[in-house]
Amino acid sequence: EPEVTQTPSHQVTQMGQEVILRCVPISNHLYFYWYRQILGQKVEFLVSFYNNEISEKSEIFDDQFSVERPDGSNFTLKIRSTKLEDSAMYFCASSDTTGKPEKLFFGSGTQLSVL
Amino acid sequence: AQKVTQAQTEISVVEKEDVTLDCVYETRDTTYYLFWYKQPPSGELVFLIRRNSFDEQNEISGRYSWNFQKSTSSFNFTITASQVVDSAVYFCALIRIQGAQKLVFGQGTRLTINP
């Protein structure tokens, strides 16, 4: 079965540093998403991306965050100046070509620790 | 706005017992999808089931079964003859079919199956 790949699986960074989380969505998918899960809490939507632009973002997704699809295969989440409260598991997801997320395929996540 | 409530924060049972995880949702949409995901200790989100709001037929998959009742806005999940490997956090989630396509998660239920 096709899968969404995320790298790295764990990332440790110092507060104030920039981090880039990388994702390779399923090849024929057109809709991409980032979700976040703070330890012990529920999974929260951050942003959706379609046709090279953000289609929706949550209030969590402030100016410190940005997303990019730099080439035909990668989808990245950048945090410009990390804060302690950015420590979380970040999940990338993609959905199929119909654009209707009957089934979102999630990656295995990147655990970000900000020290 | 959509909301998903999983009132059971933690459940602990002995192996081979049956266990039901509750999920209640709120939405003004008439068409939507409901999901259950499993999050094992390794952290990834494992898709279990998707249910279209048009389809209230209950579903069984091995030891897993789901009871969707639109009248009470509930989508409960039952594990029959539980096993230690079922220990995980289980999330119920909702997504609209039209418009904004973000998955709204419940808080999750931590299920522990004791040998």
How would you characterize the overall build of this protein?
The complex is a heterodimer of chains A (115) and B (115). With 115 residues, chain A is mainly beta. Chain A has strands at residues 5-7, 10-13, 19-24, 31-37, 43-50, 53-57, 65-68, 75-79, 88-95, 105-106, 110-114. Chain A contains no helices and eleven strands. The mean pLDDT of chain B is 92. Chain A binds chain B through residues 31, 33, 35, 41-45, 48, 55-56, 58, 89, 91, 93, 95, 99-109, 111, and chain B through 33, 35, 37, 42-45, 47, 50, 52, 91, 93, 95, 97, 100-108.
Amino-to-carboxy terminus distance of chain B:
41 Å
Helix content of chain A: under 10%
Radius of gyration of chain A: 13 Å
Main sheet characteristics of chain B: 6 strands, mixed
Order of helices and strands of chain B: EEEEEEEEEEEE
Descriptive keywords:
A: 115 residues, mainly beta, 7-stranded mixed β-sheet, globular, B: 115 residues, 6-stranded mixed β-sheet
Describe what is shown at a glance.
By secondary structure, chain A is mainly beta. Chain A has no helices and eleven strands. With 115 residues, chain B is mainly beta.
Indicate the topology.
The complex is a heterodimer of chains A (115) and B (115).
Chain A: E1 5-7, E2 10-13, E3 19-24, E4 31-37, E5 43-50, E6 53-57, E7 65-68, E8 75-79, E9 88-95, E10 105-106, E11 110-114
Parallel strand pairs in A: 2-11
Antiparallel strand pairs in A: 1-3, 3-8, 4-5, 4-9, 5-6, 7-8, 9-10, 9-11
Chain B: E1 3-5, E2 10-14, E3 19-21, E4 24-26, E5 32-39, E6 46-52, E7 59-61, E8 64-69, E9 74-79, E10 88-96, E11 104-105, E12 109-114
